[in-house]
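Students often ask why inverse folding is considered easier than folding. One informal answer: many sequences map to the same fold, so there is more than one right answer. In these notes we will look at a single instance of the problem. The structure comes first.
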């Protein structure tokens, strides 16, 4: 036999009736809130009333004395049937409370969404009005300035001093604009000039280094007719560097058409000093460098051995191998001292 309210004691049933009355009032307020076509302020007031009623119902259900007394009364009952009836009523009221909380959350979210939309609409309208007013004010001020600046004669209601001040301000603004443009152009020209000077300095240092290197190698070189190998290599390196520097400077110079073109023929028009026998010069340079490397390697190997022992020259490149080391997959015999 399922438990019914007839099995509940009268004092406990009276408390359940009080909770049921509160629940019915909350249901009516929620129905009014859903069907209310009034303004947003009225909806907020009714929502606050429903929220307070639900909080009171929640206190009675969960944290109030009624809940504790009802649960204690259900535990104190001797009959299982009465205990089950009380607990079933409590469960129903708890589920109803959860439903009220969900309804309030959804209603609050909808109200916040509508409130945010109203605020966005008002902000858009106010921003458009402000933009329109600023545009109208700017147009009116521009029209007044044009009338004061380009008027052929003094207009009634306009001060002559105001008109002269306006013309002076216009002239000063135009002068400041021209000065700023000229300063920007000069700054750009100065930057390009500094870059060219740095590049020239670097190229001069490279030429000096190449000349020093060729002088050192010239001590071990031999001459061929009127031109020596060192002179031809110096000419070749100098011509190549000047040609490369000429292309570089012209490429940087083409970025600024207004920059004045330097007239130094030694910098931008280097003399072409290449002779007709350039191929023979290149071959002589290669032979000279190979011979120098070969002699240097022989001297280095002899210095390591201290002039003692027997050394063997292997291959066309002049590799020096001491006795007793591996040469072409075999060993050279060495004598024991």
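Output (designed amino acids):
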């Amino acid at each position: 036999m399922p438990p019914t309210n007839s099995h509940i004691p009268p004092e406990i049933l009276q408390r359940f009736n009080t909770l049921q009355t509160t629940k019915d009032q909350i249901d009516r307020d929620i129905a009014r809130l859903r069907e209310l076509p009034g303004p947003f302020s009225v909806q907020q007031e009714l929502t606050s009333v429903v929220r307070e009623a639900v909080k009171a119902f929640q206190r009675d259900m969960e944290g109030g004395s009624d809940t504790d007394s009802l649960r204690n009364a259900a535990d104190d009952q001797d009959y299982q049937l009465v205990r089950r009836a009380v607990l079933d009523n409590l469960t129903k009221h708890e589920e109803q409370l959860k439903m009220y909380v969900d309804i309030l959350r959804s209603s609050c979210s909808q109200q916040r969404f509508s409130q945010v939309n109203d605020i966005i609409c008002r902000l858009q309208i106010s921003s458009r009005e402000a933009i329109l007013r600023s545009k109208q004010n700017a147009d009116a001020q521009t029209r007044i300035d044009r009338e004061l600046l380009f008027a052929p004669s003094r207009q009634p209601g306009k001060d002559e001093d105001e008109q002269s001040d306006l013309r002076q301000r216009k002239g000063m603004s135009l002068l400041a604009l021209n000065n700023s443009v000229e300063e920007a152009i000069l700054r750009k020209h100065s930057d390009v000039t500094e870059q060219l000077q740095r590049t020239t300095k670097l190229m001069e240092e490279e030429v000096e280094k190449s000349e020093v290197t060729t002088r050192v190698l010239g001590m071990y070189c031999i001459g061929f007719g009127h031109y020596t190998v060192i002179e031809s290599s110096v000419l070749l390196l100098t011509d190549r560097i000047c040609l490369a520097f000429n292309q570089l400077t012209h490429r940087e110079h083409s970025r600024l058409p207004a920059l004045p073109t330097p007239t130094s023929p030694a910098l931008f028009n280097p003399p072409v000093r290449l002779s007709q026998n350039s191929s023979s010069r290149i071959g002589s340079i290669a032979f000279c460098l190979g011979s120098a490397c070969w002699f240097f390697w022989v001297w280095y190997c002899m210095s390591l051995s201290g002039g003692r022992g027997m050394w063997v020259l292997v291959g066309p490149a002049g590799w020096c191998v001491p006795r007793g080391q591996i040469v072409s997959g075999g060993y050279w015999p060495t004598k024991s001292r």
